[in-house]
Specification:
It is built from eight helices and 15 strands. By secondary structure, the protein is of the alpha+beta class. The chain has a domain of 70 residues. Helix 1 packs across helix 2, helix 2 packs across helix 3 and helix 3 crosses helix 4. The termini are far apart. The N terminus is likely disordered.
Length: 283
């Protein structure tokens, strides 16, 4: 498999991989800030430009106190020259990323071929959390399971990937999903070209598709996603099969960056997340 040398080097050391993801992954930076603020510490958010700072602040609102409505003025702070100082969260509150939450794992499965593809699913429309959104195969840990065991089991149950045929490369940093109150560990692995991911559990998965990483890197399909009435801004991929945004898009964006696949794209090209893809809960 012709992975870029950078990705192979990063995966040889989980600390190095985590460090590079943290530096380039806006969502991870926002999560770390939320954890510090929940621990009673002030933080300084610094963006490369006003757009990145806006994205950081929007994500911080998603990662903020789970059981209260944070004061937007408190979250947004006083902005100066693409940086802002934010005080700790109010006493007694805690960030969605800091409280622990439901432990989950997902499998970022790459195919072992020259033109690498990645396994993505569209979640069933009947699911309680994130119905209809694009995701990686995965789910909650069973008692006594490791994150790797959980990711492999869930991928087998959802899309038929055989655990024995996955070469696990490493773990990415834990990340938080606010709506489902989950702390998620992404597991990176390679599957053989003879594997045929497909819908196995129709209660969990609506469809399965395997876009090429070269397709995901195409500037023509890349956008900055927004949500009406929300400060959220983040990367998005407008594929023929589906619209990818949120947690999954942030992970794909980070993977393209550190793996050497990314092409320069116009981040000022904005698109609104389609209604069918932004429901946090069903019903």
């Amino acid at each position: 498999m012709s992975f870029p040398r950078l990705l192979q080097q990063l995966l040889e050391c989980s600390t190095s991989f985590s460090t590079n993801i943290t530096r380039s992954h806006t969502a991870t930076r926002a999560l770390l800030a939320a954890r510090l603020m929940a621990a009673g510490r002030s933080v300084v958010l610094v963006g490369k430009n006003s757009e990145e700072l806006a994205e950081l602040k929007g994500l911080l609102q998603l990662f903020g106190p789970a059981h209260s409505n944070p004061d937007p003025a408190h979250i947004l702070g006083q902005e100066q020259n693409n940086w802002v100082v934010l005080p700790p969260f109010p006493a007694g509150s805690h960030s969605r990323g800091a409280w622990g939450g439901r432990a989950s794992a997902v499998l970022i499965a790459l195919t072992d071929e020259d033109d690498t593809r990645i396994v993505l699913t569209r979640r069933a429309l009947t699911l309680r959390f994130h119905p209809g959104q694009v995701a990686f195969p995965g789910g909650s840990l069973d008692p006594g399971e490791t994150v790797v065991e959980a990711a492999l089991r869930e991928a087998h149950e959802e899309v038929g990937i055989e655990p024995a045929k996955v070469r696990v490369l490493g773990e990415l940093p834990d990340m938080s999903l606010a709506a489902s109150e989950s702390l998620i560990t992404p597991i990176l692995g390679i599957i053989g070209i003879d594997e045929r991911p497909r819908v196995v559990d129709e209660g969990e998965v609506d469809s399965v598709f395997l876009p090429k990483l070269t397709t995901l890197a195409d500037p023509e399909i890349r956008y900055t996603a927004t949500i009406p009435g929300s400060p959220y801004e983040g990367p998005a991929f407008h594929l023929e099969e589906a619209f990818v945004w949120g947690f999954t898009a942030h992970l794909l964006d980070g993977l393209l960056k550190v793996g050497g696949w990314e092409q320069t794209w116009n981040q000022s090209k904005v698109i609104e997340v389609p209604g069918d893809y932004r429901r946090e809960r069903s019903g």
